[in-house]
Structures are given as C-alpha cells and as structure tokens.
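Researcher: Please translate sequence to structure tokens.
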Amino acid sequence: MPATPVREFNVVVKDSSRVDILFGHCYPSTYRVGMTSLALQILYSTLNAREDTSCERYFRHQTRSPATSIETGRPLRDNHIVGFTLTYEEDILNIIQMLEAGNIPVLAKKRCEEDPIVIVGGPVVSTNPEPYADFIDAFVIGDGELIIHEIVNEVQDAESRIEAITALSMLHGIYVPSASPESVGRNMISDLDSLDYPIAQIVPDVETGSKLEPIFGKSFLLEVTRGCGHSCKFCLIGHVCRPRRTRSLNKLKELVKLGLEKTPVRKVSLIGSSLGDMDRLEDLVCWIVDQNVDVSVPSLRADSVTPNLLECLVKSGQRTLTIAPETGSSRLRKVMGKGLDDDDIDNAVKLAEAAGYSSLKMYFIIGLPGETDSDVEDTATMIRNIAQHSTMRITASVNPFVPKAQTRWQQEPQPEIEVLRNKIKQIDEKVKNVPRVTLETLDLRGARVQAALSIGDRSLGKVIQAAATYGGYGGWRRAEKESGIRFLTLANDTEHLSKGFPWAYLRE
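Model: Translation complete:
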C-alpha cells in the first residue's frame, strides 16, 4: 500500500531541511475515522501555517504503515514532536502500538535525547490522564489551539530534550507527569470567532461509500459550537467543556463561503455538542441550503427541532433524524438533568415524519444510577410506541452507562455485565417483533474497559502495556491476570474513589 491510501486535496508538503520543527500528528485509529476529526484539520492547518514547522499525518490503520507519514513517508521517530489526539479511551492501545512500530520507547522514562517528545491531547486526557502517564511526556489539558504555538516555540528554543520538557511543564494547561505538579489548569477558549479556522481542509478523493471516506462523507467540517450548557450527570462534555461557546452567524457564513472556495466539496457538516441550543441554527442551515449546498447535522436535542429546520435539512438530502432521549423514563431523565419530557420527544418524531424523514435514530443508556426494571420497561415502551405511530425506520442504540471522570456520576458503579445483558434482553424482547425497529448495542466488554480507563489511576499502566501486546478483550483479561492489578471489575467498585480522585490536580 502506498504512503497515501488515496489522492487528497489540500495536502501540505514541505522540504524538511528548510524548517526547524518536524511535527507528527497521529490519529490512533483508522484513516477514515481520523480524517473525520476536526482536531486533526485544525492542528494540521495551524502548524503548517508556520514557516518553521512541517506537520505530517500518521494513522494506525488503512495506511502503508503507522510509522510512516501520509505526506512523504517520513519515519515517525524523525519528528521532534509526536502528537496524538485521544478521543476514545481504548485507543491508548493503538498509541502504544504506533510508538512501537515507530521504534520510539513506549515508556517515557526510557526515552533519550534522540527520541521525539510525545504529547497527547483530547477529551479523554483532559479529564483523567493518569492511566496513560507512564507513556506520555506531556498532556494538553483543554483546548489545544491556545497552547500549540507555545509548545512548538519551547521545543524549538530548548537546547536539549529534558530542557524542552521542563519548559513545557511550566506552561498553563500542560501536564508533565515527571514534574509531579500540585495543580494543572485547563485551557479554555472563550471566543470562537477569534480563532483561526481551517478553510482549506484535507479531503480524500474517493467514491461515496468507500471504506476510506470520512464518516460524514466528503464535506467541509464547520464547528458551530464547543462545549455544552446542560451538564447531564453522566456526560463528560457537559462537565469539562463548559461553558457552551458558539460562533456568530456572520462568522459561520464567512467560513462556509471561504471554505467552499478552498475545499472541493458541496456539503457542509455541522460540528458541535447540543447544536440545537444555537439561537440561529435554523437560519444557518437554511442559508447553507439556499447556496445549493448540502448540509448534515449529527444529533439534535428533541426540544430544539422546528418544522422549518427539518424541512431545510430534508431539502439538503438528510433523511435520518438523530436524537438522544437517554432513557424512556421521564423520572430518570429528570434525575440525570436531561431536561426533556415525553412530549418533546413525541413532537420531534412527528415533525420529522411530516418533514419527510424516512428514519429515526435514538440513543439510550442502560444501567444508569437509580435505574429500576420499570425504567428499562419505559425505554422499551417508548421505542415500541414511536414505531407503532410512525412509518419511519427506527434504530435504537442501547448502550451501557460508563462512569466518566469529573462528572457528577463519576463515583457511581457500572453494573455487572450480566445485569446489563439482562436489561438489553428485557428491551429486545419487547421490540424484536415490532416492524421497522432495529436494536443496536455496544460490546458490553468494551464498555467495561472504557469505564476502568476513565476512572483509573497510574497503576493501570502495566495493564495497558501488556494489553497492547496481546490485543482484544482477551488481551485485557490476560494483562490483568499477569499484572495482578484489578482492572475489569474496577468500575463496579463503589469504594474505588473513596480516598480521592487520581485527577484531583486538574483545575478549571
């Protein structure tokens, strides 16, 4: 396989001999997933806008090698800085495997002067970097755009690797485990309009439906909002990405115009949590459609949809409405702080069908704190009732509760796998014979791994390193047994965090 899996537009290639800093931006997953990452597009554009820096991309899968760049085949270890974005906890195994493939020592303490500085950012480490501390030289806590230039400047100015890492430890929003700081602040951008934004985005030239096509298709990624203002008790974004910030309508229109001039697509994908909270979302969507450009919106809060908004989305080609009731129980929604009642959900479904939508996707969580059999029954009843009163195809995604660090439910236990399995079975038995309904579930074992990594401490490093060698869920079980460190039952233990939080040094 060639270094570049497909032809791409807006790739930046520089003569490495004419720059001071070589930066390897790594996405520890497939090319397809990585090319859907807004963080990748932002950092790639920002770094390559510097005359003194060359940023090239690396992916774990779907390329010739995870240790050679897409642009020129540059070896991973030839970079001065290797930066990863960690969006999903389990991708830490891919990070370790990429380091190994690149002949970079996995353990930070074993790296020497010739090794690149390994930095990780993203929502996972902004909430709890401790399980990964053995492998990483420095973590970016919060919004990376605020600190990326300072990182490059410090590395460029330092006379040694140790001096560079020491300098990084003194920057706001940078956590260097070897420095053992008492507190680390979080970088938070208050005004999105003030940020430079990538208008010449990288787009792969592939056919629709290709396994290399980004998840949202070939489109211009437009970040509309960042953060969330609802603070549901289970949700990471609603706790560590507050407050919600929104770009102005005029700025968004400007970015669309410039972006479609520089990026060869005729589709705009809106990015952001709780998009429906944007005051003028309907104006933005309908304006984009009026430019003869398709637009896609991920999920919407059920209480934010309007007839005109949905009609504009249908006009642009969108046929699936995605909402997240979280549970069919109105009582439990109130407890978790969701702020939706049954009428909001029913109304959204009716409006979608009237606007011409052909399918509906709904996200639910089982195993929530305080959940009863009656609450699970309410979820099954909601799915069944909506299906019986609608002609749309319905996909119900039912996934287990995962306690997340720094949320209000961080100390709540995750139910045993058998308990979760019975809850899914309870729902499945109620909807399996209902026409046009499909039930989807996350691998319960993967949810167990995700939960342990979310609330774990630095002792998990030994488990992670071994699991990266073996792979799969069986690898986690084997790593737990060999290390003697409790891992797969960690999230079931109500006493695990009773003596303090491993991430307590992280501050606002």
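Researcher: Any highlights?
Model: Residues 126 and 141 are 5 Å apart (CA to CA).
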